[in-house]
Write a structure and sequence with these properties.
It is a single chain. By secondary structure, this protein is of the alpha+beta class. It has a single domain, classed as Gcn5-related N-acetyltransferase (GNAT) (Aminopeptidase), CATH 3.40.630. Helix content is 28%, strand content 27%. The protein has a 7-stranded mixed sheet with strand order 1-2-3-4-5-7-6, with helices on both faces. Strand 3 and strand 4 (80-88) form a beta hairpin.
């Protein structure tokens, strides 16, 4: 497995991975990333602000996109990053790769000076919620600055120096 920075060549495969996961969990509805205008151009978003954002691609040994996770600044809390678009191909679930993607995202956030990580999710994503809780995220009330209106679960984690 290879962890690397997103590139424009990843955009289509990543968008299709995200859309297929959302369809599976019946979240291919308005108010989710499924309908984001920039879904097929995620590299533009994550590469545009270099040091404050990143998207980490997980690729197989043939460099095919099998997952990924992003971080970007979140204005809802001081010194906070938002964990964004954590997705993994179904064929690779159950191997601990979700935990590794979380660690990669948290390390990237800490490296960029963030002191906490926020994320939003949905009840339909019970496996993801289990992952977040196992990784030390605690559920919080809905912040005022939620972007994806369909999301109904919100979590925060204080980062520790590693």
């Amino acid at each position: 497995m290879i962890f690397r920075q997103i590139s424009p060549g990843d955009d289509t495969a990543l968008a299709e991975l995200i859309r297929s996961n959302l369809r599976k969990y019946k979240l291919d509805i308005p108010g989710t990333v499924y309908f984001d205008e920039n879904l097929y151009h995620l590299s533009d978003f994550y590469l545009a602000y270099g040091e404050k954002r990143t998207y980490i691609i997980l690729a197989d040994d043939n460099d095919m996109v099998i997952g990924g996770v992003g971080i970007a600044g979140f204005d809802g809390f001081a010194d906070c990053a938002e964990l964004q678009k954590l997705y993994l191909d179904d064929g690779y679930k159950g191997q601990g790769l979700g935990y590794e993607l979380m660690k990669q995202a948290e390390d990237a956030a800490a490296k960029r000076g963030y002191k906490r990580v926020y994320l939003e999710t949905h009840d339909n994503l019970d496996i993801a919620i289990h992952l977040y809780e196992k990784c030390g995220y605690r559920e919080i009330e809905r912040p005022a600055s939620v972007v994806h209106s369909t999301m109904n679960r919100f979590f925060l984690k204080e980062l520790t120096v590693r």
